[in-house]
């Protein structure tokens, strides 16, 4: 996501109605992967600490085995654990691979999220 979209993103994050974030990076771009941890994850935690996250690696069709240029599944799993994301899904819009899984995992993340306890009123 470019910095030009940042104000829109902040508005959405701060609206109190967000149920789940899909944090996306391109498997073919280490910079986008590193931005998850250094830029987008801290911002989400700042504005919406209790909203679940699904980590999504895009452009799966471009990955070439044993190429250091591409983000590996192992690296994605490590980041998922580090940021406490609900899950990691790698997908390809071009090849239509695992697209449904992205949204299924988002639903699972929302369903798994603990419900807020109702406020109690105590009269003394």
TrEMBL record:
Keywords: GTP-binding, Nucleotide-binding. The keyword Calcium does not apply. This is Uncharacterized protein. PANTHER family: RHO FAMILY GTPASE. The keyword Nucleotide-binding applies. It comes from Glossina morsitans morsitans (Savannah tsetse fly). GO terms for biological process: ameboidal-type cell migration; cellular process involved in reproduction in multicellular organism; developmental process involved in reproduction; epithelium development; hemocyte migration; melanization defense response; small GTPase-mediated signal transduction. GO terms for molecular function: GTP binding; GTPase activity. InterPro entries: P-loop_NTPase, Small_GTPase, Small_GTPase_Rho.
């Amino acid at each position: 996501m470019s910095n030009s979209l940042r104000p829109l993103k902040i508005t959405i994050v701060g609206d109190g109605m967000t149920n789940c974030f899909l944090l996306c990076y391109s498997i073919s771009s280490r910079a986008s992967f590193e931005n998850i941890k250094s830029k987008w994850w801290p911002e989400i935690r700042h504005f919406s600490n209790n909203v679940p996250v699904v980590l999504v690696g895009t452009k799966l069709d471009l990955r070439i085995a044993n190429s250091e240029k591409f983000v590996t599944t192992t690296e994605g799993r490590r980041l998922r654990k580090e940021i406490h994301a609900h899950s990691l899904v790698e997908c390809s819009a071009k090849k239509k691979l695992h697209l449904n899984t992205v949204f299924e995992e988002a639903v699972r993340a929302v369903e798994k999220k603990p419900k807020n306890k109702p406020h109690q009123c105590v009269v003394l």
